[in-house]
Amino acid sequence: MASLKELKGRIVSVKSTQKITKAKKMVAAAKLRKAQAAAEAARPYAERLEGVVASLASKVGASDSAPKLLAGTGKSDTHLLVVLNSDRGLAGAFNSNIVKAARDKALELQAQGKKVLFYLVGRKGRPVIARLFPGQIIEQYETTGIRDIGFEQASEISAKLMELYEAGAFDVAHLFYSKFRSALLQIATGQQMIPVPPPEGAAPGSGSGASVEYEPDEEAILADLLPRNVTIQIFKGLLENAASEQGASMTAMDNATRNAGELINKLTIVYNRTRQAAITTELIEIIAGAEAL
Fold it and tell me: Which of 43, 84, 89, 288 is most buried by its number of CB atoms within 10 A?
């Protein structure tokens, strides 16, 4: 059985940890409000733009005049998985759930005979992906030191993806991030970014049949709209990730604080019983000594 000194030291140590987890929970809660507001504000624009581009994809299809970002390369041999993670831990299963979703997709594609490559943002998912898929990480975007990751970073990531796509490094790109629902629920999500997938149930080349006039012209609009859509989808993913990370961190720190409280109570009970037993033993020894006299 542990001594009174050891038990007291353990109680002090757990109380110290509890203070840290409680403080981290409060910090995460404060950051969550800002991150959640940013993610929710970006959703309508990103979803509407995605819908417009997807509608164009179903209308234009794979015609000779269609931009490469819309029509694709004509094959789907090489898939690039863009995985958005954070640089920090203490957020429960936030990072591991995103990595698991990307891993499952990669294994599914490899089973189909496809080549899979990775573009990693953030450092938390790197060790696992590097171990499971050695030599398949072609790019790593560093976010260390960036306090609030945002549109500037999304633009840089998008520009690099465009460069890789034009160079023929991949045929299809998928984005993986965590969609924020609440502090208790974050959903690891994967979506195809390049080429733009048509709406579900829509046949290539189908459309509303409405007569549409483009100004200045269709090619100029698509040349600007398609890269912008990639940037916006990445930006949305980064914002969703930021909110999800803070929500997961707040929940994890709340659980850790409550677990620490329960452990302190258990240790206190053991400490009091041990102390009482020690006092009783001491009294018995004193009484026995007195009787011997």
Answer: 84
